[in-house]
Amino acid sequence: DRATFTDYVARINIDGTIATDPARLKVLADLAEDDHVKAVIIAINSPGGTTAGGEELYEGLTALRAKKPVVAVIKELGASAAYMTAIATDRIFARRLSIVGSIGVLYQNVDAGKLLDTIGVNMEKVATGPLKAEPDFTGPIKPEVRASLESLVGDSFDWFVDIVSERRGLTRPQTLALADGRIVTGRQGVDAKLIDAIGGEAEAIAWLESEKGLAAKLPVSTRYPLPDQGFGWVGKFLGSQARTALGLNPTGPIVLDGLVSLWQVGPTS
């Protein structure tokens, strides 16, 4: 309990798919102003999520890092927008066999035109412009729509590459060579300079003590996620392995609206 001690290390858990979250952003801002918080650990286990959610976390952690030492600890998975989150910290730790990387941006669209033809459904629409309500799931992506989407994806990708290059001390060509969407193990990530060291929370705390002057044996307290209130458990439940209990495919694609930076295992035959 926070009330039982004074100085402490705060832990922020980033689990499941990432989206924007004003409550999480406020927690980060409050930690920055709390004199009792001597360091912050960002514990990550996530395949990524929306690009806006990753950007929000990156900016929030950048502001926090300006006032407190911040380290990332990647557990099983820290990919795409979750890797975007990790690079905002002072140092990144991961297990040898953690999955990291997947630098890239994705926009997906389903073409259900043949299915609609088969069942005899005809969709019509009235729009104010040629790109309004596009792409349309009733047919393939039109060339002009594809060009618009490629510009959208490309702009987001350029920003992602730029911050990886800046934060990891890599040249842009070096970063682009790693930004083809590939995932790597933690051990490979150290060699590629995507992460700093092998380890978990204990190693992160040891580094904070030796390199950032953190007092020894300070307690660690989880500050996010916030205590569940009302139906707040639903979102947490959906982001967990309990997707299976609701009839959702736990290994299939995770559906998010909008532009995403997400690593996911596709369906198998």
Structural account:
By secondary structure, the protein is an alpha/beta fold. Helix content is 36%, strand content 19%. It has helices at residues 22-33, 51-65, 81-86, 113-119, 143-168, 172-178, 186-191, 201-211, 233-238, and strands spanning 8-15, 37-46, 48-50, 70-79, 91-94, 99-101, 183-185, 197-198, 220-224, 260-262. The strands form 2 sheets. Strands 1, 2, 4, 5, 6, 7, 8 and 9 form an 8-stranded mixed beta sheet that branches. A two-stranded antiparallel sheet has the order 3-10. Strand 1, helix 1 (22-33) and strand 2 (37-46) form a beta-alpha-beta unit. The longest helix is centred in the middle third of the chain and has 26 residues, at 143-168. The protein is elongated and about 70 Å long. It starts with 7 loop residues before the first strand and ends in a 7-residue tail after the last strand.
Mean of all residue-level pLDDT scores = 81
Q: In sequence order, what are the helices and strands, one letter per element?
A: EHEEHEHEEHHHEHEHEHE
Q: Could you give the count of β-strands?
A: 10
Number of helices: 9
Helical residue percent band:
25-40%
Distance between the termini: 48 Å
Biggest sheet architecture: 8 strands, mixed
Sheet/helix structural class = alpha/beta
Radius of gyration: 21 Å
| Overall morphology | elongated
Task: Report strand %.
Answer: 15-25%
Low-confidence stretches: 229-257
Any key phrases for this structure?
269 residues, alpha/beta, eight-stranded mixed β-sheet, two-stranded antiparallel sheet, 9 helices, 10 strands, 19% strand, elongated
